[in-house]
Predict the 3D structure of the following.
Amino acid sequence: MEQIELGGSGIKVSQVGLGMWQAGGPEWGEDVNDDDCVAAMVRAHELGVNLIDTAEVYGDGHSEEVVGRAIKEIGRDEVVIATKVSGGHLRYGDVQKACERSLKRLGVDVIDLYQIHWPDPWQQVPLEETMKAMEKLHKQGKIRAVAVSNFAVRDMVEAREALSDTDIVSNQVQYNMLHREIEKQVLPFCQKEGIAIIAWGPLAEGSLTGKYGEEHRPQDPLRKDHRFFTDKNMKTISGLLSVLEAVGKSHGKTTSQVALNWLLSKENVIPIPGAKRPSHMESNVGAAGWSLSPDEMSRVEAAVDAVRIDPFRT
Ligand SMILES: NC(=O)c1ccc[n+]([C@@H]2O[C@H](COP(=O)([O-])OP(=O)(O)OC[C@H]3O[C@@H](n4cnc5c(N)ncnc54)[C@H](OP(=O)(O)O)[C@@H]3O)[C@@H](O)[C@H]2O)c1
């Protein structure tokens, strides 16, 4: 699998990564268990995927513990571990403590990519304070690279101003065919500045797999009332899914593989589809290594453009 360097960090990650929020527990449904998640990570490694994403908040640390189990099986140097400090732990001392806890749960000495999960809108901790703490961790060798998540351009600019010896190497944001807000400002800014975009929710929480319909939708707490799965929005999405299925057929690819391939066609964008088991990962790596023809891309783009989902309405 092709690899992409994260910013100027020297850290190279597979063009498709793996999201492990799913390993946090039953939030994602009763069909998730630790052993399957570990097996998904081991299979990912066999298939050339080295980027594994987790966070201290996923299952209150449980996801990091499960990732730690997988690292023991795979080998520390074979994986790029991306984890996150939550938006509630952004004071200087809290960042340090959160990092220590994550290192322990992951069972490693260094975190490859340490991301600020979201900017803090409630406690109003100055971003400068948080970035100084991130830089200290970098100097101490506890993290290999500083990164952010869900940051607007203004947040990235402010964060970078506070860094003296390091830079932000990536911004992890929601990006998929149904949610394209970042195309307005964040994506062009990051592409210009050489900051990688790590795309979360690349399958729009599974709605772009084509396996869900009005008669069959996820029942887990996270998704049962999610905007992508309302009656109205599922109808809106169905036209797009038909196009993805038809275009995919001529390449022997599935609907979800076309949805991920569309993200891979964007410069410096690394999708991290979440997986509950090895079969998800086996399918998701099939998104890489091929391209849509210009005609097919135009057809797909037209279908993507035709879908309008209001973020706040069902
Ligand atoms: N930074 C942030 O704020 C943030 C926010 C959200 C997520 N994330 C990260 O991004 C990762 C990915 O996002 P996400 O998990 O929210 O959404 P996603 O990747 O769009 O969807 C994941 C879900 O799609 C289904 N799926 C995945 N691959 C499949 C396949 N090949 N065939 C059929 N179904 C498949 C699985 O659920 P079912 O089988 O149950 O349908 C899986 O749980 C997360 O794991 C997490 O690491 C970060």
Summary: The chain has a mean pLDDT of 95.
